[in-house]
Every structure is written in structure tokens, then in C-alpha cells.
Amino acid sequence: MSIEVENLDKEPVIVKAGTFFHLWCCDCRLRHIVFVDKVGSEKIKIGLVRDDIATKNARKLHNVVVYEKSSKKGVNATKKSRSRS
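-> C-alpha cells emitted (85 positions)
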């Protein structure tokens, strides 16, 4: 199976092996740091870590409210509490 990245995204991300880029969700303002490294001659390794501080600040700036779905049946979603520091 061959997929051309340019067919999926008008602006693909191009980075050097051993570097990183930031990935933002435009809806919930969640930010990840994406690490990219080369493994062998034809493979890459991708790792993600959530950037909690940038996520919290962006959500506060853009007034994004995150709701948590309850695992109990019949209980409504509740607003996720967020500490004001």
C-alpha cells in the first residue's frame, strides 16, 4: 500500500531525524511534542508526549471547557475541574 502524504495534507510536516515538532488539536487545544528519529534505512520512530502546561494555557486562553464522560450508566458528563494557579 502506497499513500502519498501530499494527497492527505496540503502542508505536510518535514523534519530532520532526531528532532521534534509540536502537534496541536484545533478543537480541544491539546498539544503534543512529537519526536522523530530514523531507525535503519527505511523506518522512522515516532514518539509523543503530551505538553500539559501548553495545553492548559491554550485552553485557558481560548476558553475551552473539557467534559469527562462518566463510566456509570445514566450519569451525565461533568465539567472537568481545573485548578486556578
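The radius of gyration is 18 Å.
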